[in-house]
Amino acid sequence: MVRRMEMELWDWMAYADQEMSGSRITSIVIVALIHVAVGYLLISGLAISAVKEVVQRVTTVDIEEPEPEPEEPPPPPPEPETVPPPPVAPPPPINIAPAPPPIRTQQNIPPPAPPVLIVPPPAPPAPPPPPSLARAAERDNFNRWAARIQEAYPSRAVRREIEGNVGVSVVINAEGRVQSCTVTGSSGEPILDDAACEGMERYARYDPALDAAGNPTTGRDSLTIVYRLN
After folding, report:
1. Residue 206 and residue 145: Cα distance in Å, rounded?
2. Looking at residue 135, what DSSP letter applies?
3. Is the pLDDT of residue 30 over 60?
4. 2-19 and 23-44 helices cross at what angle (nearest 10)?
5. Residues 138, 172: Cα–Cα separation, whole Å
6. Where are the domains of the chain?
7. According to DSSP H, which parts of 73-154 are helical?
8. Cα–Cα distance measured from residue 29 to residue 35, given in angstroms and rounded to the nearest whole number
9. For residue range 161-170, what is the model confidence (pLDDT) as tens digits?
10. What is the pTM of this model?
11. DSSP 3-state of 12
């Protein structure tokens, strides 16, 4: 019987050796020794009560298994890199030309319609032009400056008792003064001719000529200066 128990013990230990490790093997070895001791006591004729008590103690041995260490959770898989999609150019617009209208041929071409004569209405009459304000130059206080020209009778002509008539033409500026003088009818004496133009440029005064808008402008005058000794 002891041999049988030993064989069962070894079979059980072999099974335990495959299934358990570490502290479990140690506990199993202790239990096996206890079974051997119990078998020996049975053979020696010990009391059954002692065997039951030992068996009860053996069967009530708690074998604490070590708590397995918590496994670390596996790292999360790397997030895939989001690559923006390549820009897609829109397709070029397709211009679809409309179909040309059908060409209709006409055998008999009608004569062209006569042109419509459109007579435009007469243009409104143009407004009358404003009255012209133009006028010629006018002598200002003629008797006074003519007398001063006579008073400037050349002394050489007086001594030689020279007399004569001098015709002159003058250009009058916008201020009413004689701008230039030309002898148009000579007296035959250069002394009197020169004295006539010099007197006109020095003493003559005019109201200046006006253009159509009434602005002062240049004018002309012609006259004869008479040199007479009293």
Report:
1. 10
2. B
3. yes
4. 170
5. 10
6. 2-59, 138-227
7. 142-151
8. 10
9. 999 999 999 9
10. 0.45
11. helix
Give the Cα separation of 166 and 36 in Å (integer): 186
Q: φ and ψ at 221, to 5 degrees?
A: -155, 150
Name the residue among 160, 222, 134 with its Cα closest to residue 185.
222
pLDDT tens-digit readout, 49-66: 554 564 455 444 444 555
pLDDT at 66: 56
Pairing of strands 178-185, 164-172: antiparallel
Residue with the larger pLDDT of the pair 198 and 10: 198
pLDDT, tens digit, 9 for 90 and up, residues 100-158: 666 766 667 777 777 777 888 888 888 888 888 899 999 999 999 999 998 999 999 99
Query: Residue 110 is inside which H or E element, if any?
Result: none
Q: Give 181: exposed, middle or buried? Use CB within 10 Å, 0-12, 13-18, 19+.
A: middle
The CATH number of the domain covering residues in 138-227: 3.30.2420.10
Q: Which residue has the tokens 């490790």?
A: 21
Query: How far apart are the C-alpha atoms of 32 and 17, rounded to whole Å?
Result: 13
Q: How far apart are CA 222 and CA 167, in angstroms?
A: 8
